[in-house]
Design brief:
By secondary structure, this protein is of the alpha+beta class. It has three helices and four strands, in the order ααββββα. Helices cover 40% and strands 11% of the residues. Strands 1-4-3-2 form a four-stranded antiparallel beta sheet.
Amino acid sequence: MEWLTLLELLVTAIVALAVIGFGGCVALVMLWNLFLLACRSLAPIARFGQAQPPIRLPAAIWFLAVAAWLFGLTAALPGLMNQGHGRERNSATQANAHNLQMAVEQYALDHGGRYPAALREIFPAYMSGYPRTAWDTQQATKSDIPATYDPAVVKQQGRVLGEGELEPPRLIQDFGAIGYTRLPDGRHYRLSATGRQGTMAIVVFYGTNQTDTSASDRPTPGEQEGAKSNYLRGMAPERSLER
């Protein structure tokens, strides 16, 4: 019965190891051997002028290899699926925040360059309300969640906010929450959105029209202290019992 030539075996092993790992390679070798056993009645096909016998291993080794491969595949699939869903939900959250940012910019164009004091002011003229989150929760139209901001961090997007909560957004640490803050001069703003990484809440979107460091654009001392305190604690403030 025919078996792969040494060169073919080497190339196949390298490709297989790179694509499916060691366990997958063992399983493929087993399947190939089973195929050869099922084809005993077929005449061997010589390659390069010489037929070679198949490589066979004891049945117990095949069984253990397949069991280990299936166990690893079963254990890895949920994690891979969750990672994929997490990326999709974070992308959907970014899209929601971007749509709100576009509505805020349109509001400013219609109001002489002044931005809304709160996002509720753009409803329903520019948007019907907050988009439903990727976690199938709904942020209330009248909820005014401040945008997350840490003056000690250069890049706000990707910053960890602490343990997240899977419920209708009322705090910036809730998954899918969209926060907005208009700065004191009325012509600058911050808008942020919260996604999920495992059990942690992270900033997946941060938008602002700040282009300089003038005094009117800088956060107030109280805002700086509050943002720094929340960042150092790495956790959400106490959740209000009011709904």
